[in-house]
Amino acid sequence: MVYDILVIGAGPAGISAAIYAKRAGREVAIIEKAIPGGQLGLIGLIENYAGFSKIDGNELAYKFYQHALSLNIPFIMQEVVDYDFDKDLKEVICNKDTFKAKAIILALGSHSRELNIAGEQELKGRGVSYCALCDGNFFKGKDVAVIGSGDSAFSDVAYLSNICNKVYLLTKEELKLHNYAENEFENKTNVVLLKGAISQKIEGDDKVERLIYKDNENVHSIKVDGIFVAIGRKPDTEVLKNKIKIDNSGFIITDSQMKTSTDGVFACGDVRMGSIRQIATAVGDGAIAGTEANKYVLLYDHKKKNKI
């Protein structure tokens, strides 16, 4: 079967794109290698998505999934291994089958880089977080640590210092405050800068209790209730190199209509350069991508019919 539009990725952006395209009358399918809902399944309580004062990430993911199913949008549970955008009908090569479509929407998402230290996986979601904006409110009045050396880490510290009792910033490198004033953190009495600190281990029984780190040859332990990892994000765009334009970090470059450098290929959500990587913005991106992909297919069909 040739689809009008194939959406790659079943997170909020991908499902939103598919819903808008399907409601416009297009034949749409979603290809997903893991679980529908994307990163939502890794989030605990969500309190910043309009319409839901509080909702569990898994529950919201299931609602997205059920909405797509109610519109008879099929989910193809396969992993994409390559693309061919040069043919008239674009091809998506998966681990089992190859699928063709007039337009492609890339909603691949991105994932936080991890520390890869002892205790991180076991305590993920139980004090270990990768999004201060999402989870910061769970640690009001508590002591937390932020690990990272870039703008995102500094931004997390600035945010958390307003709601937490104490915030430790562990950075392996000398601080480069970039867009922040030199005295940004010096004026905050509850921020502790730990330069040259290399995280070694996260400890705790049912939740985070301690962070073990080393500076030079000395090993230290600090008591914290939460640990926010801010060492960057990594998009799943390796197979897209030399097929569409991506930035130096691997994020897809689009315009405001979610169009990529390749005609008929769109991108939305966390995989897109410039995204603030929130559920709300992913859904908005998806709505635009689904709408613009529909326009592209209408023009494609018109040209074919009239042999333009």
CATH class of the largest domain: Alpha Beta
What characterizes the major β-sheet?
Answer: 7 strands, mixed
Radius of gyration over all CA atoms, rounded: 22 Å
Number of folding domains? Answer: 2
User: Count of DSSP E strands?
Assistant: 19
Which shape, going by the Cα principal axes?
Answer: elongated
What is the H/E order?
A: EHEEEHEEEEEEHEHEEEEEEEEH
Percentage of residues in helical conformation: 10-25%
What is the CATH homologous superfamily assignment of the largest domain? FAD/NAD(P)-binding domain
- Amount of beta strand: 25-35%
Average residue pLDDT:
91
Q: Termini, distance in Å?
A: 24 Å
Q: What CATH architecture of the largest domain would you give?
A: 3-Layer(bba) Sandwich
- Total helix count? 5
> Runs with pLDDT <50, length 5+?
178-182
Annotated CATH topology of the largest domain: FAD/NAD(P)-binding domain
Summing up helix and strand content along with how strands pair, one would put the structural category as alpha/beta
